[in-house]
Design a protein that fits this description.
Layout (H helix, E strand, L loop, with lengths): L37 E6 L4 H5 L6 H4 L8 H20 L4 H7 E5 L3 H12 L6 E4 L17 H14 L11 H18 L4 E6 L1 H15 L17 H7 L12 H8 L11 E3 L2
Parallel strand pairs: 1-4, 2-3, 2-4
Antiparallel strand pairs: 1-5
Pfam families: His_Phos_1
InterPro entries: His_Pase_superF_clade-1 (IPR013078), His_PPase_superfam (IPR029033)
């Protein structure tokens, strides 16, 4: 399977030096008080493309109503919403706080919008909602679009393990997806504080963001992770984003690369809810 040009480069490639992601750039999970918000992830419920067994990864096809949730997927999403409410209560976030503190952010694909709608229907109050294009499905390229998922997904994932910087022809690599997913959380960290945020997205993007977080979740924040005023900064995702040099190439630490290559170690079933950070 031919791939497009790699975005990854050794530290000396491109203009100047590409800084690696090191543990000193990373933050611990929010329970340690480092991140400003708490994050959950939710894969969309069972969709019509799931039932047909076809790849629907382009934005053009993904937003079409006929590619939304199957009836069973809507029920799955409602159950996920009930579980999310239960976990919010366990985290000490009561109903009085939900209208201002709960944010649901979604991919623009019809299957994720249907999922988000079903989740919001089980809340007794109206919560914050935003569509974020960067949460969209990983694009697998024109050759795989509307083709057999059972045939093509294993091929892509095998390549991912060998080279997480190389995507399918015309499609996105693991690194491409990691950068845009990390950018979403980096922005939310800057704009919001003290919120419970649910990211409603797709299988590969959510596997990849979990893989990107893994090295950082395993590492304690070092003293260099503090600003001079003593406050914490959201270095968890900034560390990844700052690896991009002027040529659009990426330098990644060994730990980050190994984790991204193994993103299939963090699969999610349809409508599966999981705490991210």
């Amino acid at each position: 399977m031919a791939g497009r040009a790699s975005r990854c480069a050794p530290p000396t490639a491109g203009r100047g030096t590409v800084p690696p992601v090191s543990s000193s750039q990373c933050a611990s999970p929010p329970r340690s008080g480092i991140l400003r918000n708490r994050y959950w992830i939710l894969r969309h419920g069972r969709s019509i493309p799931n039932e047909k067994g076809v790849v629907v990864s382009s934005l053009e096809n993904g937003v079409r109503p006929e590619n939304g949730l199957a009836p069973v997927g809507i029920e799955q999403a409602k159950e996920a919403g009930k579980k999310f409410i239960k976990e919010l209560k366990e985290e000490g976030l009561g109903e009085a706080d939900w209208a201002n503190k709960v944010h649901i952010v979604s991919s623009p694909f019809s299957r994720t919008l249907d999922t988000s709608t079903a989740v919001m229907q089980v809340f007794p109050v109206k919560v914050k909602f935003e569509v974020i294009p960067e949460l969209r499905e990983r694009y697998f390229g024109p050759a795989m679009e509307l083709q057999s998922a059972d045939k093509w997904y294993p091929v892509v994932w095998q390549v991912d393990r060998a080279d997480y910087c190389r995507g399918p022809e015309g499609g996105e690599s693991v690194v491409d997806v990691a950068i845009r997913m990390a950018g979403v959380v980096a922005r939310l960290e800057k704009e919001l504080k003290g919120c419970a945020i649910l990211l409603v997205s797709h299988g590969d993007p959510l596997q990849i963001i979990q893989a990107a977080c893994k090295p950082f979740k395993d590492t304690q924040l070092q003293s260099s992770g503090r600003k001079q005023d003593g406050s914490s900064r959201p270095q968890l995702f900034d560390g990844l984003l700052n690896c991009i040099n002027q040529n659009g190439q990426v330098g990644l630490s060994c730990e980050m690369g190994k984790s991204l290559a193994r993103h299939r170690d963090w699969p999610l079933e349809t409508a599966e809810l999981r705490r991210l950070l």
